[in-house]
Amino acid sequence: MKINYDGKMNENIKRPINGGTGIIQSVSNGISQIEKFLAAILMLALAIIVALSVAFRYFLNSPLSWSGEVAVFLLIWISFIGGSLGLKYKSQAAVTLLLDYCPQRVKMWIAVFSQVFIIIFLVLILSYTYTWILSDGVAFQKSTAILLPMWIPYSAVPIGLTFACIHVLAQLVHVIKTKGAEI
Predict the structure, then answer these.
(1) With left for phi above 0 and alpha for psi between -120 and 50, is residue 2 left, alpha or beta?
(2) How much is the pLDDT for 1?
(3) Model-level pTM?
(4) Which of 32, 90, 100, 135 lies 20 to 30 Å from 11 when distance is taken between CA atoms?
(5) Is 140 helix (H, G, I), strand (E, B) or coil?
């Protein structure tokens, strides 16, 4: 949180939902801890692999054939995990000019509608991604450089979207429980 020099917290910064006694909030908080750890490990691995790739290419004149492919797979996983965390911590871009002038009750209903819309969208995309991941075309496909089964890098999509759906559901429950008091 951003703290002013007079010791007051900046009210413009949205706080994540860390409290709450509900099961869904606990699950969301647990998943976000796993996501943070996993994202940190994947970013460290990505930095090491890219640095090794540069070192091998320019200093040893022996480029690593697999580094580009692994870096892309790591970046895909980082992106979907980061997107899920972005929804958890409400860090997506938003234009709130009209919302700022609405009464609290209207803000609550807009928040409920937007969360429900996001959940419907995520569930729709998830149904297609699970069908895609479980298809025969993906089951037998392998990557070109390291011969990794492609369902492993492709699994970033349904896993990241499932986590995002859980985070948005936790926010929806929180908005309904608090009647929009923290919007």
Answers:
(1) beta
(2) 47
(3) 0.84
(4) 32
(5) coil
